[in-house]
Amino acid sequence: MAVDPKAMAARNVRAYPLVSFLTVVSGRSVAAASAPVNAGAPRGESMGKHQRLINSAQVRPSSEIPAHSEAAPGQRVVFLDDRILPEASFYTAARVVRDLDGAPRGVDLHRHTCDTTYMILGDHPDLTGLTVEIVLEAERYEVASPASVFIPKGFPHSANCLRGSGKLINIVPSARYNAAFAP
C-alpha cells in the first residue's frame, strides 16, 4: 500500500528514507525505496491504527554521537530511538560493514548511564565473517561473530569493526542515546 503523506502529516508521523540492508536471517537484500516513505501496512490494506509502530531505519552520521567519529567504517543505521518514535524507550542501531581488513578506529573508550548490549553478526549463512575489537576498561579483545557482548552500566568500553563483513548491532535501554553517556 502506498503511504498517504497527507494522512501521515495529519497524524504527525515523520517519513524517512528506507535503507537497503541485508537481512540477518536470510542474507538476502531488501530493496530500498527511491523516495522517502514510512514503513506501513501490507500492500492493498488501509493504514492501520498501529502503523506508526512500524518504522523505516535511518542512516545517520557517527559524528552526532560523543566519542564516535566518521573514521568508523561502514554505515551507522538507526532502527529505533525517540527521534524515530517519540515514545520509544530504547535505542537500536547497527554498523554495517563490508570487506574490512584492518579498519581505522572510529569509537573511543566511553561509558553509559545504563547497560548496553552488542550483537556481532557476520554475513555468512552461519553468521560468521566479522571480527570486532571490543575494549573493556584496559583489556582489548578481538571478538569473532556470531557473538554478543554485555556492557554493565558505567563500564568503560569501545567497539570497532576490524575485519570481514557484517553488522555490529547496538542496543541501549535509553531512547536518547546521547543522553546515556556517562561523564
CATH C-level name of the largest domain? Mainly Beta
Radius of gyration: 17 Å
- Average pLDDT metric: 79
Architecture (CATH level 2) name of the largest domain: Sandwich
User: How many individual domains?
Assistant: 2
Class based on secondary structure composition and strand pairing: mainly beta
Order of helices and strands: HEEEEEEEEEE
Number of strands: 10
CATH topology of the largest domain: Jelly Rolls
> In angstroms, what separates the terminal alpha carbons?
46 Å
Name of the CATH superfamily of the largest domain: Jelly Rolls
Percent of sequence in beta strands:
35-45%
Q: How many helices does DSSP assign?
A: 1
Keywords:
183 residues, Jelly Rolls, 2 domains, 8-stranded antiparallel β-sheet, 1 helix, globular, mainly beta, two-stranded antiparallel sheet, single chain, 3% helix, 10 strands
Question: What does it look like?
Answer:
The chain is mainly beta. The chain is 3% helix and 36% strand. The chain has one helix and ten strands; from the N terminus they run H-E-E-E-E-E-E-E-E-E-E. Strands 3, 4, 5, 6, 7, 8, 9 and 10 form an eight-stranded antiparallel beta sheet that branches. Strands 1-2 form a two-stranded antiparallel ribbon. The model is unreliable at 1-38 and 40-44 (pLDDT under 50).
